[in-house]
Give the backbone structure.
Amino acid sequence: MRTIDEVLRIEDIDQKIAYLKKGRKTELPDAVKLYNDWNPNRHEIITDKEKYPKIKITVEKEKEVYDEKTGKTTTIPKKTKDVEPNRIALPIEQDIVNIQTAFTVGTEPKMNCEPEESEQGLFSALKKVLEKNKIKYQNKRIVRSWLSEQECAEYWYVVKDDGFWAKLKRRIGNLFGTSAPEYRLKSVIWSPFRGDKLYPFFDDSNNLVAFSREYKKKDLDDMEITCFMTITADSVYQWELTDGWKPIPSFKHGFKKLPVLYCYRPEAYCEKIKTLRVRLEKLMSNYADCIDYHFFPILMLFGDVQNFSGEFKNRVVELTGEGANAQYLTWNQASDTVKLELDSLIEKIYSMTNTPRISFENLKGSGNALSGVAFEYVFLSTHLNVENLAEVIGEFMQRRVNFLVSALGSINSSLEKASETIDIDVEIEPYRLDNIDDRVSTAVKAVSGNVWSQKHGVLFAGNADRLEEELQQIKEEQGEKQRMEIEKQSKMSQNKPQNENRPAV
């Protein structure tokens, strides 16, 4: 296989792009098929009119009419009409993926780091970059895309600084010298549903050495143009397909590492339950048709109708003749078998994907039972599944932090040395239903019992982001409390009656 440098030296652009696409070692996801599964309005129960045709309803039966003048009998054919059947589509894929996403990154990934004094500025800058780019929301979009679209990429680039460094310097005075950096970091997500075709280029050692993206855009005349861009460890190359491929001037992105992070899975997360979902939609739709046509009883009259009297609840029908009677024709088919299959399908769908059914109906009887250890047991399978998902997502988050550390050193020379020494480990933490009272109570007991340090107690209580500030605040409040206690004791001693200590007469 040719190296990325050899491919980029090819003069024929068509051949060059063909080789860049060959660098991908997996099949492109079928974006149309995946989106049809994701969007309930595109499920076959809605779109397949041949498999689920309209229902023919007889309006008038076939009848014969005798013409006395001609003495002939004419057959009038029956009249029918087509009625749209019930088409019930369920957004099950969306529900499952959203729940799995929430459990995977609903709690922000933890960054384990004990920075030296010289690395404090870089660590603070990193957290500010993540905050500025709304990473806690972007994490959800990435995991959701990865689970439903099979792949996703995150591209980082620089834009002119809009006060990012100035705001950060107010918190960290020695962050840089007299002149602030010109640029700040931004990111964007690429994925199949967003109209992107992704072509990662792996070398023979399975290292990602380049990344290409094919997409479409519209010019000023609203004409659609196909674009192709390739990012390497040092440069960005672009071409546009108008009358053949035309190159756009390349440029250096200024980073020391490839500014693209990529994650892939061989199939969509909900692919394994698709047949069950299709059966569930068919069953519910057919059952709805049965209810529509058989639920309301039909009044059968035997005899001659003489008169109707009364209104609404007091209405009465008068029948005469031999065997006169009136009764309702009802549908007596049992629905237990249908309900059993519906419940079985739903249970199997969620259990196969290790997804809890979180609803008021399912949890209303739990009360406070779902706290602490009980919660862990109820959602054990989901937490174990998050551990499996973390094999890819955890690595993705780690590569992001590694890149951003390097990038911050590239755009801010004062952070370059720290970027080469700082050590940050990223850990995926499954979402848990935390009881803040339990956590604080545990922390207080452990610290007061000399089992934990005060620092550990603050971390356990959930103040990792403001650790140093909280410790300083606790120290100041404790000092103030001691001062007030000393003043109180001093006042009590001064106000003590002078004759209190005199001997009794």
Q: What stands out?
A: The longest helix spans residues 380-411. The longest strand covers residues 316-329. The chain is about 40% helix and 25% strand. The CA atoms of residues 111 and 426 lie 5 Å apart.
